[in-house]
Automatic annotation (TrEMBL):
Name this polypeptide is given: Type II toxin-antitoxin system Phd/YefM family antitoxin
Pfam families: DUF2683
Gene3D superfamilies according to UniProt: YefM-like domain
Lineage summary: Bacteria, Pseudomonadati, Bacteroidota, Flavobacteriia, Flavobacteriales
Organism: Moheibacter lacus
Family: Belongs to the phD/YefM antitoxin family.
Length: 84
């Protein structure tokens, strides 16, 4: 593991980005403010929930088909929300 300062990281970004592929690189910004530099493929990000993505895709399809609701006033918005 390599620990460096922000200044050192700024001066040699490429060097430390390359090094992060083979070992952990910690950039220290001061007391209690440190960050790890890791390759993106190592970040454990589950992405979006598949059900959430399906809902968005369905909504986009419905909008393309003209299945939309036009709301012009607060009263219409409240009525629409109450109908759900």
């Amino acid at each position: 593991m390599k620990t460096i300062t922000v200044s050192e990281f700024r001066k040699n970004i490429k060097k430390y980005a390359d090094l992060a592929r083979t070992e952990k690189v910690i950039v220290n910004r001061g007391e209690g403010k440190a960050f790890a530099i890791v390759p993106l493929e190592e970040v454990e990000d589950p992405g979006y929930n598949p059900e959430f993505v399906k809902k968005i895709e369905k909504s986009l399809q419905e909008a393309e088909e003209g299945k939309t609701v036009t709301i012009k006033t607060e009263k219409e918005l409240r009525e629409f929300l109450d109908s759900l």
